[in-house]
Amino acid sequence: MEASGASKGGLYNHFRNKEELFSAVLSESRVIWREVNLDGLDNIESPMGKIIRILENYRDRYLVGSGDVPGGCIFVRVSVESSDLGNQWPHLAREINEGFSRFKAMIRRLLDQAKTDGEIRDEIITDEVADMVFSSMMGASVLYGMDRSADNLKRNITSVIDYINGLAPDFSVLPANAHLG
After folding, report:
1. How many C-beta atoms surround the C-beta of residue 151 within 10 A?
2. Which member of 2, 41, 118, 173 lies 3.0 to 4.6 Å from 168 by CB, making a disulfide possible if both were Cys?
3. How far is the C-alpha of 123 from the C-alpha of 110, rounded, in Å?
4. H or E stretch at 57
5. Max alpha carbon distance in the chain (Å)?
6. pLDDT tens per residue across span 29-40
7. 129: domain range?
8. Which pLDDT does position 3 carry in this prediction?
């Protein structure tokens, strides 16, 4: 409110109701999420490198580095703080859940491609790894939203990156900074 110079009443009067306002906030948040978290992926050939870049972007640019997203990931915060969302506005709750599902599917596709390319071991179950990566990101966001500790966030996401790197058949497959292109 302060940054825009608008009053609370002026903001609410711009929208027909709170649901329309919330829907607009979520829509803009999706744009910001994509721009920040998927930045640089087109320049990376390695599927594992892309996953690592997403994790680094989420940690360094989205949660910590973005003044646009105070308090962590809005989708995680809304999911955690608004248990009534599904009752109040079920279609908005479905939209958030569908976004989560699409993101997990993207991670799984990258892992599947990494397996095909020989970047990860054949016995890796990509659905389980995708769930673990996604859940770790969500948990890190909740913790960061509570304690605002960049050090804890870095440690949490770095642990996920280390785990991802450990999926390689040998560590020579993914040299340091493989995600840089």
Report:
1. 8
2. 173
3. 16
4. none
5. 59
6. 888 889 999 999
7. 8-180
8. 53
